[in-house]
C-alpha cells in the first residue's frame, strides 16, 4: 500500500506531518470541545452546588468524594493513554474512542445528575458510584480527543490556531451552560428542582453526543510514531518524568485549573449568600465564559507577537493581581431584588428594598423578572401598587419594585449597585486574562510530545495527553474539594443565612485564593525553556528523521 493510500484511509498519514488544515477540520475538531464543556462546566461550576443544595449531602462529604475519586484517575488516565497509543484501526488511534465512548458518557452523566430517594448512606454510595462512572467515561473519550490534537498536524502555528478555535467553542458552550443552567433547571423542574437538574443534563448530553460525532467525521490523524517504535507503558511514563517541559506543564496546568475551578465552584455560593442576588448567578458565570472565549480566540494573534511561556506569565500576573484586589469589594448596602426561595407566603417591604423611607402619595410598581435572552431580563408588572407586596406559591420568582414620587423622581430597586458593577467588571477582566491559558497550555503539551520524540526517538502522544488530562482533573477536583472543605470548616449550612466566617470563606474562595494560585503559576513558568527557536529546530530534525525512514 502506498503512503498516499494509507493517508487516505486514516491509518498512516505520512507525508503531511506539518499540513495546513482545512478550516472545516479545525471547526470540526473545535466542536468536540464544545461537547465536552456541556459536561465540564457543570462539573466545574455547578456540581458541588448541586450536591449540597439540591441532592442533599454535606459540603465536607462532597469535598472528600471529589478528592478520593482522583485515586481512580491516577490509574485510568495513563491506562487509557497507553491503550490509545497502541490502538490500530481503520479510523486511527484516537478517533474510535470519540465515536464509541459518547453514549456511555451520556448515560453516566444523566445518572450523576439524578436524585433517587435514598437515605444518607445510600446517597453517598450513589454519589461515589455515579461520579466515578461519569469521570471514567469522560476519560475514555476526552484523553483520545486531547491526543488527537497532537496528531492533526505538527505545524506550530497551525496548532495555535486549532487550539484557539477549540477553546473558543469550549468557552462558547461555557457561556450557554453557565448562563442557562439555573433557568433551564427551574423551567424543566418547576417545583421539583432535582428533576429540573436531571432533565437539563439530558439535554446537554444529547447535544454533546451529536458534536462528538461531528468531530469523528471531520478530522484525520497525520502525525505518527516512528515505524519501528515498540515501547512499554512504563517506558512512556519514565520518558515523561524525564521530560522537563512536560513536568513543568503538568504542575502548571494543575495549579491554573485549581484557580479556574475555585472561581467557578464558589460563584454560585458567592451570589446566593454574599451578594444575595442568586438571580445574577447565571449572568455572572455566562459573562465569565464569554470573556474566556474572547481570550481564547485572541490567542493565535497574541502568539504571533509573543512567546507562549512569556504570554502565559503575563496573563497569570494579571489574574493574580486583579483577583486579590477583588477581595476588597464589599457586598451591596441593600438588596433591591429578591429571589423567593419557597412557596410559603412572603411579604416584601418596598422601603427595605429601596433603602429609603417612603413619602406620602408615592406610587409603587412591583415587577417580576423573567428571562428574555441570556442575561437580558423581561419585567412583568404586577397588580399591587402599594408599598407592601404579599405573595404565596411564588418559589423561584424574582421581584423588584419601582417608586415614583410626587415630584416625578423615580427610584428602581433593580438598578445595579456600584459594588455589583465592579464585581462584574473584575470578573470579565480576570476571565479575559485566563482565556489564553487553555489554548496555550494544550499547544505546549503538543510541543512537549514532539520534544519527547526528538529526545528519545519514541512518541507517546496518548500518554502525554492522558497525564496532562489527569493534571487538569486533579486540579479541578482539588479546586472543588477545596471549596467544600473551606465551606465545611467555616460552618456552611445549605439554604440558610451564612455566618460571618462562612461568608468570609466564600468571598476568599471567589477572589484572593484563586489569585494566589495564579501567582504561583506565574512563578512556575520561569522554569519552562521550550522556546520558539528550539521548537523550530525540533520540527526540522523530526521531519528529517521521518524522510530518512520512508
Rg calculated over all Cα atoms:
25 Å
What string gives the helices and strands in order? HHHHHHHHHHHHEEHEEEEEHHHHHH
Query: What integer is the average pLDDT?
Result: 84
C-alpha end-to-end distance: 13 Å
- Please bin the fraction of helical residues: 55-70%
Strand content is: 5-15%
How many individual helices?
19
Rough outline: elongated
The main pleated sheet reads as:
5 strands, antiparallel
Q: What is the strand tally?
A: 7
Fold and architecture overview:
The structure is a single chain. The chain is of the alpha+beta class. The chain has helices spanning 3-8, 23-55, 59-68, 70-85, 95-112, 120-149, 156-189, 193-218, 233-241, 244-274, 281-303, 308-326, 350-354, 418-434, 437-456, 461-489, 500-510, 512-524, 532-549; strands at residues 338-339, 346-349, 363-373, 376-381, 388-391, 398-404, 410-412. Strands 1, 3, 4, 6 and 7 form a five-stranded antiparallel β-sheet that branches. The chain contains 19 helices and seven strands.
Task: Please render the helix and strand layout as text.
Elements lengths: L2 H6 L14 H33 L3 H10 L1 H16 L9 H18 L7 H30 L6 H34 L3 H26 L14 H9 L2 H31 L6 H23 L4 H19 L11 E2 L6 E4 H5 L8 E11 L2 E6 L6 E4 L6 E7 L5 E3 L5 H17 L2 H20 L4 H29 L10 H11 L1 H13 L7 H18 L1
Helix pairs in contact: 2-6, 2-7, 2-8, 2-10, 3-16, 4-6, 4-16, 5-6, 5-8, 6-16, 7-8, 7-11, 7-15, 10-11, 10-15, 10-16, 10-17, 10-18, 11-14, 12-14, 12-15, 12-18, 15-16, 15-19, 16-17
